[in-house]
């Protein structure tokens, strides 16, 4: 009976990990479909200029940039706590090369799986 709460915790962690993984895929596909559409658009603006093309896009850009930097700090600190030596080499660069909408839920999924393995009986 003492293992029952641990098993339930591990099961909930796997469900959360699956949800985060789905969100990572949605983040990857969603952001890159727009990135590829922008690349094909023939815009006179560079990608970064387009981020700051008007007040609304500038607000969203600052929002994403600040959240991305905060997420990278979390990745490195929590990765060190979990003894993941690869986080700063993988997730931090992927955040800026691919998308925060991909790396943040991916990190959360991997963290849930890791913590679930610890909690499993």
Topology, element by element:
Layout: H1 3-40, H2 47-51, H3 55-81, H4 87-97, H5 100-119
- Taking all Cα atoms into account, the compactness measure Rg is 18 Å
Count of DSSP helices? Answer: 5
Strand content: under 5%
Structural class: mainly alpha
Number of strands: 0
Q: Please bin the fraction of helical residues.
A: over 70%
Shape, per Cα inertia axes: elongated
Main β-sheet description: none
- Show unreliable segments: none
* Overall mean confidence score, pLDDT: 93
- List the helices and strands in order: HHHHH
Alpha-carbon distance between the termini?
11 Å
Give structural notes.
83% of the residues lie in helices and 0% in strands. By secondary structure, the protein is mainly alpha-helical. The protein is elongated and about 60 Å long. The model has no long low-confidence stretch (mean pLDDT 93).
């Amino acid at each position: 009976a003492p293992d029952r709460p641990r098993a339930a915790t591990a099961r909930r962690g796997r469900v959360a990990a699956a949800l985060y993984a789905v969100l990572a895929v949605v983040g990857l596909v969603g952001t890159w479909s727009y990135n590829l559409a922008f690349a094909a658009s023939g815009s006179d603006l560079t990608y970064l200029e387009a981020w700051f093309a008007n007040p609304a896009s500038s607000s969203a850009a600052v929002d994403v940039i600040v959240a991305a930097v905060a997420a990278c700090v979390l990745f490195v600190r929590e990765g060190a706590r979990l003894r993941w030596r690869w986080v700063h080499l993988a997730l931090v660069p992927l955040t800026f090369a691919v998308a925060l909408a991909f790396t943040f839920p991916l990190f959360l999924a991997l963290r849930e799986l890791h913590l679930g393995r610890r909690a499993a009986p």
